[in-house]
Amino acid sequence: xxxxxxxxxxxxxxxxxxxxxxxxxxxxxxxxxxxxxxxxxxxxxxxxxxxxxxxxxxxxxxxxxxxxxxxxxxxxxxxxxxxxxxxxxxxxxxxxxxxxxxxxxxxxxxxxxxxxxxxxxxxxxxxxxxxxxxxxxxxxxxxxxxxxxxxxxxxxxxxxxxxxxxxxxxxxxxxxxxxxxxxxxxxxxxxxxxxxxxxxxxxxxxxxxxxxxxxxxxxxxxxxxxxxxxxxxxxxxxxxxxxxxxxxxxxxxxxxxxxxxxxxxxxxxxxxxxxxxxxxxxxxxxxxxxxxxxxxxxxxxxxxxxxxxxxxxxxxxxxxxxxxxxxxxxxxxxxxxxxxxxxxxxxxxxxxxxxxxxxxxxxxxxxxxxxxxxxxxxxxxxxxxxxxxxxxxxxxxxxxxxxxxxxxxxxxxxxxxxxxxxxxxxxxxxxxxxxxxxxxxxxxxxxxxxxxxxx
Length: 455
Prior knowledge:
- A hairpin with a 2-residue loop joins strand 1 (146-149) and strand 2 (152-155).
- The model is unreliable at 191-202, 351-361 and 447-455 (pLDDT under 50).
- The N and C termini lie far apart (70 Å).
- Helix 5 (94-114) packs antiparallel against helix 10, helix 6 crosses helix 8 (174-187) and helix 15 packs parallel to helix 18 (367-383).
- A two-stranded antiparallel sheet has the order 1-2.
- The protein is 65% helix and 2% strand.
- It is globular, with a radius of gyration of 23 Å.
- The longest helix has 29 residues, at 207-235.
- By secondary structure, the protein is mostly helical.
């Protein structure tokens, strides 16, 4: 009986329809149909069809994803110009929101342990994460491991993850490697007896590795959800807003169907807590530096955050950020045996120039122009707007993390955890013009008032 109740696999398409109906019912403003809130919800919901098309192998999926992400990027760039931000309550009471948020988090944790890295009972109930992992493993198994060049055999490093700290990426890639070995054994078996023998000889993922990876994922998801709630409660001064933002994040098909990707979740959790700690430049710098070292692309957030702390807290933020990133990179370099070329090749996922890996999602010829445009965008956001507050920091951080989706050479457009929490907080944020670094740090240093000063 216990096994019957634990089998709650949900088809990705079914979850898309259910989540869409729930999001519309809870967050859609029926009395203000043409409001910005409804437009924002429509953009977030349009991400799911592209995700489904990519997971099921339709070539138009990446084009759909990039189009919707570009619209969201433009929306985030326009957000600093929206001076009036009226508080729009959701269509559910505070108690209902709390119950929904906690229930969704419990189901996400249970699904991470029970369904994400195990074979589904049928192909129809496979999660998007399982479908994407299977596609990647099949491509890796079909790709030659070496090429002949000038009479010499040159090894081709497999492109199985995006740029990032090698130790961190190897740890994040552990579940996929065991699924790849199982797929390799099954691909080499043609008849039923051989398939059965292959399944019997396959060594499953060790329990220690499985528990370690899943624990990191669960702690990362909890950090994102709790961080969003605390930002709404303490910085937006509205507890219900924080819970609503976290509930929307958990309802989105991406969060429910791809919850166990460590390289997605950990950098996002670090960045959310960097925003929460914006009144402590040293702590924010340490968290941004860790995120940049782990996944590289948060490195482009550093100029933006420096401009935010320009009038106060700049040196503390920059010192801790660069020191933390430097320590992590140096320690990984020493663990690699001091091989600088090998370390940089693995960190940036640079394939051998004699063999060009096709970039996932769009043609490789466009990568360099898009990267140049992205660097220009980073420079623009450094100077504009000149007076930055917490609202502009959130919106511009979401803009840069959205722009990074067009530059990532691996599974472009799918690293949604990097920008979804930021974008959702921007959607729900009130007017935050007074939340500047200078005012926040001055407030922290202000001495407490005594009784004599009151009279």
